[in-house]
Sequence to fold (127 residues):
Amino acid sequence: MTEPTDVKHLWARLQNAASTGELLLEEGVAAEVAAACEELIQGYGRLIDDATSLQSVRGFGEIESGVQLAQKFSRKAVGGHDALVDRLEEHIAIVTMIQQTVTTAAAKIEGEDHMLTAHLSTIDPQL
Fold:
């Protein structure tokens, strides 16, 4: 499995390429990807809400082993090493980077198109 830091590094490089105009996207792709990212971010947010409710797992009984097992599952959801909520937050950060990258790339392309159009309109067609 690819680690989140590897994916973040990749998208940071792509974000830099978008800022410099090196990342090119077909027209309309950025808007579609940004909208899909927004849906995904909202979905992850709902999953975080659901996972947070698992912070207090019950049903394993009141003997010590049952209490320990409940605590273990609770920490797996929230607050423990590699907890579900933490992983979901990492996914949100990555999807936000993707969204920003495609939005930046589209804005850069649009800005360059406007600049080129303005420049071309100053050229005398009689030359």
The CA atoms of residues 109 and 115 lie 10 Å apart. The two ends are 60 Å apart (CA to CA).
